[in-house]
Design goal:
GO molecular function: DNA binding; DNA topoisomerase type I (single strand cut, ATP-independent) activity
Enzyme class: isomerase
Family: Belongs to the type IB topoisomerase family.
Largest sheet: 4 strands, mixed
Structural class: alpha+beta
Radius of gyration: 33 Å
Catalytic activity: ATP-independent breakage of single-stranded DNA, followed by passage and rejoining
Keywords: DNA-binding, Isomerase, Topoisomerase
DNA sequence: AGGCAGACTTGGAAAAATATTG
DNA sequence: CAATATTTTTCCAAGTCTGCCT
């Protein structure tokens, strides 16, 4: 540590001292005893050494840092390389669910929800089991407390529960800066901000913001691309020193949102108890959503089924009272399923023209709704389509998975738009819930979804300047962290033995977040899947394996399992033992004195803007940069790309980005193996032929003549396989000859020539395959002389065989590499880290340094998203 | 000091688009 | 050219984190 301290550029603003003076809360109960004594024996005061990472170039500086190879082993901060075992290998049941009771809450909710008068209540909710913490009642969108939004709320059906709870906060809430519905009128704050923003931006734009740029249209010939290539000027927002980022826009115009088409009934009955039951269109709709998922895992998930059926029955009860449907097991959805299968089939087989037409329609919609005008520039939107109704596909064991997600109506939607812009008209006969002009937010439309009562937004796309700016900001923050991470590490290492349990927990958690790239881990509700992050880890998620190994096993975001057995600092190990001390037991929080807010507040004091997730970004980018140093400087492009993917993979491993193994994985792998066998067989035959010409060759390359030995040799060839393979080849050869014969004859016919007769065909076959076939019928392989059939051609046969063998050897090596790559990638998803964690400047600089075209590592969208980085690195 | 609304980033799966192969 | 395999994009769920409001 000490050594590196001195190199610390002094970016840090907070010192250890300061931290130590933090007032310490008393220890909690039982844990008191241990603390100090436990620490004493700690001989190793030696904090894990971490040198100043050569990593991310300090902000400002071009990412040339890549070039300097000063890697010292211990500087790889990321534990992951020591991870003993990929998580995939350990499929395992999950820990018990948190023991907690919300009976009281549940009771209250149940009681209140009963009281509300039907009607608009989304049935989903109605039937729902009691344990809902928030009344998921969608219908109770917190109304914008705004002055005039009265007009909008048709929904007077706010459930009591909510009303009672929140009535007090209604007025004046979050009104700051938000202007509602009256163009031309705005609060003072807003308008002021607006003015400043607009002036500064305007000038900046004039000066350096606009630059000529060629539209990147090099795409293939008729490649559509619509003519969206905005000729001419492109806005380079990154050239501006942008001031205020709480103001997201000064002018904003758009065309609103696109609604999915109405449901069209198909009139296919549900088979219930072996009898057909015609469904009311509304009931049919939701039944259809389920039917379409019949073959998915969802349909086999009991929670999903239960939730779906509850909501389905609620609708049935409403629209066709007296229906007999009470038992899910008596429902047979296959008629509907078949219907949808048929539709899919039809769609698959649609003619090219029809497909094109469909696409054109989509593009037309996109051209209207897919863009917005932000400060006078046309920019891409992310999602302009309103989400269609369906069954909520909650992941993991989400308590509400399968619930009916109801159709979003214009009356649910709040539009955010510039005060001067024309408000897009709602569909005829409808109106918007509300129209606001809030330039402190970046969304264009918002609604609340009914299943979980969550906010949904229509926002700008990743390629927009708005998102680009915050992306850049994110990576800059990570670079800043680079400058002070040493100090921060030193500090938390010291705090690992702090007298205050709260501080100790904080330091321990931070250690884990830094070393293992864990997520912060906010608290979650009872009505969500039980997943955790660092701060919410529970007793059962970490086990101790002396002397210093912690075994993590928990479900993280999206219910992806995190399994990792990792050696940690002795004091960390000790601390975890303390935090797990009885009477603490399963179901209780490991860090019971720590919240994400508390942790982040502390981080803010160490570096402006620092929060837990910055460590993930920083460590990911750092890992990428370090791993890229393994790129073979003299390798081929192919090899370099492989190295890049490897580095990328390390990052994904660190971040635990996993994916489901594809259904066809096994088959695909087997295919590759077969390809290798075929190559080896070919090589062996050539080698035998060569040996006949040149006996010395065999002595030099004994591996080619045996099935012994490793991958390099002819291992995994067997006489049986060889025979089968040769039969296969021969059969294919025959087919090919026959096909060619037919074709030739057709051509002759076209030229009015006399077609060749059967005899000609037979002659050809005789020459090429008949003899082989006879041998094969007797389970014999054809002579090597017949393979390859190049003996009569010119040139030195020996040489040609030798070089042919070399070529095959190369191909084998390549395929082997491909297999390895595929296998390593089996459960690892690279996309997320590429998109969100790796500083694009690192990749771009690497690309330049190694002469690898950027298209090889960044897809078109990525290149678009990271335009700013390409431009910056270029300089 | 803790709870929650709100907004925005991150994440895996599925769909769509392309590339490869037979 | 059709059928498959692979890559890229879209979709929307599930996190993080800030700022208000008691």
């Amino acid at each position: 540590m000490s050594s590196s301290d001195s190199d610390d550029p002094g970016l840090t603003t907070i010192t250890v001292k300061q931290l130590q003076t933090v007032p310490r809360p008393r220890f909690t109960q039982a844990s008191d005893s241990d603390s100090d004594d436990e620490d004493q024996p700690l001989a190793q005061k030696i904090l894990q050494k971490r040198k100043a990472a050569p990593i991310l170039a300090p902000a400002k500086q071009p990412p040339s840092a890549l070039a300097s190879d000063s890697d010292s082993e211990d500087d790889k901060p990321l534990a992951q390389r020591s991870r003993p075992q990929p998580s995939k290998a350990v499929p395992k049941p999950l820990p018990a669910r948190r023991a907690s009771t919300t009976a009281a809450v549940a009771a209250i909710v149940a009681a209140t929800s009963d009281s509300d008068s039907d009607d608009d209540v989304p049935l989903a909710q109605k039937v729902k089991a009691p344990p809902t913490k928030r009344p998921a009642q969608a219908t109770a969108p917190k109304r914008k407390p705004a002055a005039h939004n009265d007009s909008s709320d048709s929904d007077s059906d706010v459930p009591l529960a909510k009303k009672v709870k929140s009535n007090s906060n209604t007025p004046a809430k979050k009104e700051n800066g938000r202007v509602v519905s009256t163009p031309g009128k705005s609060t003072t704050t807003t308008s002021k901000a607006k003015i400043t923003a607009s002036t500064s931006k305007a000038t900046a734009t004039k000066t350096n913001g606009k630059v000529k740029v060629k539209a990147e249209s090099k795409k293939s010939p008729g490649s559509d691309e619509m003519d969206e290539e905005e000729e001419g000027e492109e806005y380079k927002w990154w050239l501006e020193q942008n001031a205020n980022d709480t103001i997201k826009w000064t002018t904003l115009a758009h065309n609103g949102v696109y609604f999915p088409p109405e449901y069209v009934p198909h009139k296919i009955p549900l088979v219930y108890d072996n009898k057909e039951i015609a469904l009311h269109p509304e009931a049919e709709e939701i039944a259809s959503y389920y039917a379409q998922m019949l073959e998915t895992d969802h349909a086999k998930n009991p929670t999903f089924v239960r939730n779906f059926f509850k909501d389905f029955r609620a609708i049935l009860n409403r629209v066709q009272p007296g229906h007999p449907i009470t038992d899910f097991d008596k429902c047979n959805f296959t008629r509907m399923y078949d219907h949808f299968e048929k539709l899919r089939e039809i769609k698959r087989n649609m003619s090219k023209e029809d497909k094109q037409k469909l696409k054109d329609e989509k593009d037309a919609i996109k051209s209207i709704y897919g863009f917005a005008t932000l400060d006078g520039r046309k920019e891409n939107l992310g999602n302009y389509n309103i989400e269609p109704p369906g069954l909520f596909r909650g992941r993991g064991d989400h308590p509400r998975t399968g619930c009916y997600k109801r159709r979003v109506r214009p009356e649910d939607i709040t539009i955010n738009i510039g005060p001067k812009a024309k408000v897009p008209p709602p569909p005829p006969g409808h109106r918007w819930k509300n129209v606001i002009h809030d330039n402190k937010v970046g969304w264009l439309a918002m609604w609340r979804e009914n299943v979980n009562d969550q906010f949904k937004y229509v926002q700008f796309g990743a390629t927009s300047s708005l998102k680009g700016q915050s992306d850049l900001k994110k990576f800059e923050k990570a670079r800043n962290l680079k400058g002070c991470v040493d100090t921060i590490r030193r500090d938390y290492m010291a705090e690992l033995r702090d007298k205050s349990m709260a501080i100790r927990q904080r330091a321990t958690a931070l250690y884990l977040i830094d070393k293992l790239a864990l997520r912060a881990g906010n608290e979650k509700g009872e009505d969500e899947a039980d997943t955790v992050g660092c701060c919410s880890l529970r007793y059962e998620h970490v086990t101790l394996q002396p002397p210093n190994i912690l075994v993590f096993d928990f479900l993280g975001k999206d219910s992806v399992r995190y399994y990792n057995a990792v050696p940690v600092d002795d004091q960390v190990f000790k601390n975890i033992r303390i935090f797990k001390k009885p009477p603490k037991t399963e179901g209780e929080e490991l860090f019971d004195r720590l919240t994400t807010t508390g942790l982040n507040n502390h981080l803010k004091s160490l570096m402006p803007g620092l929060s837990a997730k910055v460590f993930r970004t920083y460590n990911a980018s750092h890992t990428l940069q370090e791993e890229l140093k393994n790129t073979p400087a003299n390798g081929t492009i192919q090899e370099k790309i492989l190295a890049y993917n490897r580095a990328n993979r390390r990052v994904a491993e660190l971040c635990n980005h996993q994916r489901a193994v594809g259904k066809a994985f096994g088959t695909q792998m087997e295919k590759l193996q077969d390809r290798i066998r075929a190559l080896k067989y070919q090589r062996q035959r050539m080698a035998l032929q060569l040996a006949a010409l040149d006996p010395k060759y065999k002595r030099k390359h004994p591996a080619f003549y045996t099935t012994e030995g490793g991958e390099e040799g002819e291992a995994n060839l067997s006489p049986e396989w060889n025979l089968a393979h040769e039969r296969d080849l021969t059969a294919k050869e025959r087919v090919r000859i026959e096909a060619k014969f037919e074709k030739d004859n057709a051509e002759r016919k076209a030229r009015k020539e006399k077609p060749l007769g059967k005899a000609d065909l037979q002659a050809k076959l005789n020459e090429a395959v008949t003899r082989k076939e006879k041998l094969l019928a007797k389970d014999k392989l054809p002579s090597v002389k017949e393979f390859p059939p190049l003996s009569e051609r010119s040139g030195n046969l020996t040489e040609r065989l030798a070089s042919g063998i070399d070529k095959i050897t190369d191909r084998i090596k390549n395929t082997l590499l491909q297999i390895e790559d595929k296998d390593e990638n089996k459960t690892i998803a690279l996309g997320t880290s590429k998109l969100n964690y790796n500083d694009p400047r690192i990749t771009i600089a690497w690309s330049k340094k190694h002469g690898v075209p950027i298209e090889k590592s960044f897809t078109r969208t990525l290149r678009d998203k990271f335009k700013w980085a390409m431009d910056v690195v270029a300089k």
